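Convert to structure. Protein one:
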Amino acid sequence: MSMMQKSAWAEVSAKAVEHNIRTVKESLSKAPRFCAVVKADAYGHGLTGFARMLEERHLADMLAVGKLSELCKLMKADLPEDLQVLLLGTVPADEILAGISSGAINLERAIFSVYGKEQMQELHTAAKQKGITVKVHIRIDVWDSGMGMGPEEFLTFQKELFSLENLQICGVYSHLYTSYSEDKEVIKEELEKFASLERGILPEYRKQLTVHVLNSALVFKFPEYAFDMIRIGTAMYGLPCGTDAALIPAMKIYATVFDVREVSSSVPLSYQSEQASGTGGRRIARIMCGYWDSPLLLTQKEIRIRIGDKLFRPADEICMDNLCIDVTGEDTVKVGDVAVLMGEDGVTINEILMRNNIHYVHSEWMCMTAGRLEKTYL
C-alpha cells in the first residue's frame, strides 16, 4: 500500500461484525430473523459496501434504513432480489409512487413504514390508482406522545386496516425511546404494552406478520421479547449499547503520514492558529485527513492520534483536508508511517468517549465518515 494509493481510509472487519451478530443471537433463547440497521450510511461504515459484506456472508435476513434516498441507493446496489429493505422513516405516498414509477424502487424488495390510519388510507388510494400493491410495516408507539399508531387504535381498526387490498401489511413494530434508560421497570412496562397488542392481533392477521421491537439496547436485557425479528444497529457495529457483552468495534480509521518537518512555533498551521505567536520549534507530521473525512471524531476537544506505540495531539486546529500532528521530541516518526485515528489502544471508541465526556448513547457519532473516506472491507 503506497501513500499515493491511500492517504486516509477506514477498515471494516467482517470478522468483528460476524462476532457481534453471533454474540447478539447467543443471548436469545430462540432464533428470530435478524434485521441489520444500516441507516445513516451504515453508521458511517459505508451503506452499500457494508450491505454487500452482510449479504456475502449471509448475516442478515433484512436491512433497515431511515431515509427514502438510502432505500433507493440499496435498490441500485448489487444485492439479491430476495433481500428486503425496510424503510423506518415515514414518506408521503406521492414520493413512494414517484420512486416506483421511475424504477428506483423495487416493489418486491421495498417495505415502507406507515405511522397512522390516515397515512395508510392515503397510500392505499394512491396504490389502487396505480394498480399496485405496496408492502408495509405498521409502526406502533405505546406512549401518548409517540409518532406511530397507538395500540388501542390499531386493535380497534385492525379489520379495516387489513381490508386495504392494495397494502400488504406484513409487519408491526415499535421503537422504544426508553431503550437506553436505566429504569428497567419503565422499559418492561412499555414492552408489556407492545406484547399485549401483539396478543390482541386476530389470528388470521397475525400469521402474516413479522413482529419486532428489540433493538441493540434491549436485546441483551429483555431477550424474551424477541418476537419474530430483532432490529440491530449499534451492537452489530460493536459500539457501546449498555451491555457487558464482549462486542468488537468493526471500524478503524487510518491515515498515512505524508510529511514530517521542523517548523517554527511562529508559523501558523491552520486558518485560526492558536500557537503562531510561540517561540522555538516544533516537529510536525502531517496526514491528509481532516474534519470533512470524519466530522465529529475530528472536531472534539480532546483528540489523540496514535503513531507506532505513542499517542500525539494535533499541533493546531484541524482543517477540512489535513491534520498537523505535534510529534516534537519523537524523531522516529517518518513519512509513510500509519497514523491511527480510531480503533486501537489509546484511540478506541470508549477512550474517545471518555476523554470528551460523551455519553455512550451517542457513540455512533464518532463513526460518522464522509463518502470520500475510502472504506476497505476485510
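Protein two, convert as well:
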Amino acid sequence: MNLLAALRSAWRALGANALRSALTMLGIIIGVAAVITMIAVGRGATERVQAQMKGLGSNIMLVLPGGVTAGGVRLGAQTGQALTEEDAQAIALEIPEVQVAAPSLRTGAQVVVGNTNWSTSVFGTTNDYLEAREWPLASGRLFDGAEIQGSAKVALIGQTVARELFGDADPLDQVIRVRKVPVTVIGLLEKKGQNSMGQDQDDVVVVPISTYRNRIQGGVGGKLKRVGTISVKVREGEDMKAVEDNIRELLRQRFKVQPGADDPFSIRNLTEILQAQEASSRVMTLLLAAVAGISLVIGGIGIMNIMLVSVTERTREIGLRMAVGARGRDILAQFLIEAVTLSLVGGAIGVVLGAVATWAVAYFAGWQVSMTLASIALAAGFSAFVGIFFGWYPARRASRLLPIQALRHE
C-alpha cells in the first residue's frame, strides 16, 4: 500500500465516524489554542516590562532622602537628612563606575499658553538627568552652562505637554508660563511612553535646577541647594551591587553616620527591580504554556483511547486486509496516519482558535499580547508529536494481529 492509498483509507475511516473524530480532536484543539494564547499573553507581559526598562534607561539607581525614627516611630521616606547638589557631585566625581549623577526637584504646576492651560509635572534638574534616562531630544537644544548657573527662564517639554498646549504647531521658541513665570521652550523631548506605574513620562516640563529653585519654587532648599532625588547612571559592564555599596559608604561618610546607625537616605536599584519583573514574566509564560500543554497531553490520551477502540472494532477488517496481501507495516502506516491526521487537523483548528482568542484578550481585556510564528509552530509541532506518540501503540498493536485470529474475531 502506498502513502496516497493509506491517506485515502485513513480519511474514509475518520469520515465514517465524523462525530467521534470531532470529539477526539477537541482536546487537541483546546490544547493548541491554549498554548498559543498563553504564550502570547506571557510574551506580551515580558515585552511590556522590557519597554519599561528601555523607557527608564539602563543601569539606573535613585538616591532618596531616607526615613528617620523619632520616639520609636518610623517617619517614612524623605523625612531624614536632605540630599544636596554637592552630594550628587561627590557621587559623580568620587565613584569611577558612575557615569552621571543628576540632582532633581519635582512639583506639579499649571502651564499656560494664551487661552490654553495644562496641569503637568515640572522637573528642575541638569542635562545629566536626560543622559541618565537615555532621553534624547526630538528637536531643539539642551541647557547651556550659563543657563543652568544663572536661573535662565528656559525649558524642555515632553510630547504630551507639546500636544496639549500647541497641537500640531512647533513649540520651539514659544513662551509658556509655569506658575506665572514665563519660560521659553528651547527643546522637545523624544516620546517615552508610560513608566512601570502607568504614569505618562511625556507629561513633563524640564527646567534648569537653579530656575526651579529660585524662580518657580521661590528659593526652595535655601543655600544648601537641597534636592529631592539623585538619579545615578552606572557605566555599562559595572557591578550594580558594588556601585550601590560604594554610594552608600560615600554618603554615610558625608552625613557622618555612626557605625550601626540607620542610613538617612535610601537607594533604589530600578534596573534590578524591572529585571526581577521580567524574570517573573518569563517564568509565568513558561508556567502558563506548561499548564496549557497538559491539555495537549490529555488530547493525546483521547486519541490513543479512540484508536484502541477503532482497532478493536476493525479487527476483522485488518484480518481481511492482511489475508489479501497487506503487510504489517501497511496496517501500522494506516492507523498511524489516522492518529496524526486527527492531531494535525485538530492542531490547525486550534491555531485559528488561538489567534481569535489572542485577539479577543487584547481587544476586550486591553492586555498587551505578542503572538509569533515560533509559538504557532511550537504548538502545531507538539500536536503532531502527540499524534505520533499516542498513535504508535494502537497502530503497532493492529499491525501485529495474526490474520487468522483477526478473521475469527467476533
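Residues 68-79 have pLDDT under 50 and may be disordered. The longest strand covers residues 98-113.
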